[in-house]
């Protein structure tokens, strides 16, 4: 591998025509919400800049992020995407295995010290010294710390790496821990979702590589361009919400008419993601469009927020599961009964004092 | 019967705020409940209705009345009479204050024959007001505006001032749940508040309900 190979060189080497390359640049510009003037800039950057390698590690995860990623439609074909991000190490996708594969890690780490991007899918379990996830004979957490040491930035793919997701759901027996709670000295971009949308994943990477900076992040470290709004804010069923038209039962007339799924537990109003704009599988559909509410998969701890089918979610404290209304009404009932009892005793006392001729 | 001189306790802005606040809490609680558990579905075309929109509008409008009222009331605690300060500042280092609060507690547990007289709030009432109403209102304002900022979007001033609340609680759904619990916290205060006001109006040695209308505290006897 020549030291200063550009993205364009790599793409041409893999048999991609210049025409396809330029198409890819304009699609990427459009996907990132940039004007047409940016397409040549992206093209120029990719022609002149030396490629930035990406090392892609897998911790505790289900590989759904990778599955999503390889189905990205804009940027287009998977070979373009794979060349573009110069994926030098990905133990799921790469042909090499064993010592051969691990050698690549060390090679990139020394050759591109401080200049490669680390993408993490899944998270490290910390219990029992990390023995719940062993890779090449070592706990994953050690590998993560080792590779993170000299990287430029970290991308936390999916809800696992960003928040913890299902393996971190209560009681979290392996103490699965999101990346930002293990690595503290590197910039971390969270791209949550279970999995994240393919175009969001490629969009984030394309942005970082072409502009050589991190995308603008929100308070919780997510790229604003894809996580700046809630599903609810751009939902095509929003007019039914504002009108007060809701699906009450899964088999009712309202469900057939495509009314708002708020009352059957849609988490769209509390979920930040791009599903209602970018959609899935090349813009074909997304959960709400197919008639099921959003389950909030890109939000922190979504497994532990009670049923996917309740609007008011459960509060789990002291082993009691009930929602805010049940708790509130319960306490109000007790207070109401106490007030009634107190009033009764007060009335008796008051009457007694009157009988005794107590002064008024 | 010549009774003790009446005292002017609640100035006009305080009384006005009390009733405006009561009204806005009523609207907020009812509309807030229906935002969490919406009314049965509306028939016909979506373009013919705006029910949820109106409910949310009423909630936000009442919230503004509530917030501006609260800020004005806080301002009045500096310029108003000394009774106006009671809701915002507790004399927590005053042993006598706590002894008298204990006495009031005994009175409510029927352990004291006769209550003491107070021109303003009795110490127990003051503690309850502070814990439930003042802190409860601050909590509802912070969480409420944080939720409102989600609709207003990133970069809005709501987001700049209140957006930090959401990661503090975890995520948006948690803030919704806490805001909902906050409603019940304030409603339970309202239940106790109304009951005690009526009870004390009958059983204590001073006027209660009429005081919040006229501003004057009357006393029913001359003893200290």
For the largest sheet of chain A, list the strands in their spatial order. 2-1-3-6-7
SS summary, helix count of chain B: 8
Span of the ends, CA to CA of chain A: 101 Å
Instruction: Give the CA-based shape of chain B.
Output: elongated
Percent helix of chain A: 25-40%
Write the element-wise H/E pattern of chain B from the N-terminal end onward.
Answer: EHHHHHHHHE
Largest interface: A-B, 56 and 48 residues
Strand line-up of the largest beta sheet of chain B: 1-2
Helix content of chain B: 55-70%
How would a crystallographer describe the biggest sheet of chain B? 2 strands, antiparallel
- Overall average residue pLDDT of chain B: 90
Alpha carbon gap, first and last residue of chain B: 16 Å
Question: What structural category arises from helix and sheet content of chain B?
Answer: mainly alpha
Could you provide a short overview of the structure?
The complex is a heterodimer of chains A (360) and B (224). Chain A is of the alpha/beta class. Chain A has 14 helices and 9 strands.
């Amino acid at each position: 591998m020549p030291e200063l190979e550009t993205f364009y060189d790599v793409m041409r080497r893999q048999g991609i025509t210049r025409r396809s390359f330029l198409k890819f640049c304009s699609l990427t510009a459009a996907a990132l919400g940039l004007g047409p003037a940016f397409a040549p800039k992206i093209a120029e950057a990719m022609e002149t800049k030396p490629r930035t390698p990406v090392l892609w590690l897998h911790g505790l995860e289900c590989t759904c992020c990778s599955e999503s990623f390889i189905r990205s439609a804009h940027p287009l074909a998977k070979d373009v995407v794979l060349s573009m991000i110069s994926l030098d190490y990905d133990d799921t996708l790469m042909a090499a295995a064993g010592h051969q594969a691990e050698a690549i890690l060390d090679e990139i780490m020394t050759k591109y010290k401080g200049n490669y991007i680390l993408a993490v899918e899944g998270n490290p379990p910390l219990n029992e010294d990390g023995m719940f996830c062993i890779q090449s004979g070592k706990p994953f957490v050690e590998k993560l710390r080792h590779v993170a040491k000299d990287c430029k930035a970290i991308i936390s793919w999916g809800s696992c790496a960003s928040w913890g997701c299902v393996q971190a759901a209560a009681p979290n027996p392996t103490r699965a821990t999101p990346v930002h709670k293990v690595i503290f000295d590197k910039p971390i971009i969270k791209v949550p979702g279970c999995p994240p949308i393919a175009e969001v994943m490629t969009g984030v990477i394309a942005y970082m590589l072409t502009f050589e900076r991190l995308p603008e992040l929100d308070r919780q470290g997510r790229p604003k361009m894809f996580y700046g709004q809630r599903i609810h804010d751009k939902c095509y069923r929003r007019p039914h919400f504002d009108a007060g038209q809701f699906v009450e039962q899964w088999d009712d007339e309202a469900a057939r008419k495509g009314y708002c799924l708020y009352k059957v537990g849609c988490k769209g109003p509390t979920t930040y993601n791009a599903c209602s704009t970018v959609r899935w599988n090349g813009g074909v559909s997304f959960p709400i469009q197919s008639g099921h509410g959003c389950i909030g998969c890109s939000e922190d701890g979504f497994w532990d927020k009670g049923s996917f089918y309740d609007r008011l979610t459960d509060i789990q404290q002291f082993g009691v599961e009930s929602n805010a209304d049940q708790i509130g009404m319960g306490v109000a009932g007790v207070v109401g009964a106490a007030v009634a009892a107190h009033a009764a005793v007060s009335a008796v006392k008051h009457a007694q004092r009157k009988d005794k001729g107590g002064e008024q | 019967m010549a009774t003790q001189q009446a005292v002017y306790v609640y100035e006009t802005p305080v009384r006005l705020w009390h009733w405006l606040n009561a009204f806005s809490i009523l609207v907020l609680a009812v509309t807030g409940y229906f935002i969490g558990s919406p009314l049965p579905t509306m028939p016909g075309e979506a373009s013919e209705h705006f029910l949820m929109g109106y409910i949310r509008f009423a909630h936000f409008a009442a919230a503004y009345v509530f917030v501006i009222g609260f800020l004005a009331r806080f301002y009045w605690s500096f310029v108003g009479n000394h009774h106006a300060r009671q809701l915002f500042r507790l004399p927590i280092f005053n042993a006598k204050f706590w002894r008298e609060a204990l006495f009031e507690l005994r009175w409510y547990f029927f352990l004291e024959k006769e209550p003491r007289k107070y021109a303003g709030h009795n110490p127990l009432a003051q503690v309850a007001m502070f814990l439930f109403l003042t802190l409860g209102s601050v909590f509802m304002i912070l969480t409420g505006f944080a939720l409102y900022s989600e609709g207003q979007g990133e970069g809005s001033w709501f987001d700049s001032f209140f957006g930090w609340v959401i990661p503090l609680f975890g995520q948006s759904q948690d803030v919704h749940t806490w805001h909902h619990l906050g409603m019940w916290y304030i409603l339970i205060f309202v239940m106790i508040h109304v009951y005690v006001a009526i009870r004390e109006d009958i059983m204590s040695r001073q006027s209660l309900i009429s005081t919040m209308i006229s501003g004057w505290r009357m006393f029913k006897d001359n003893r200290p």
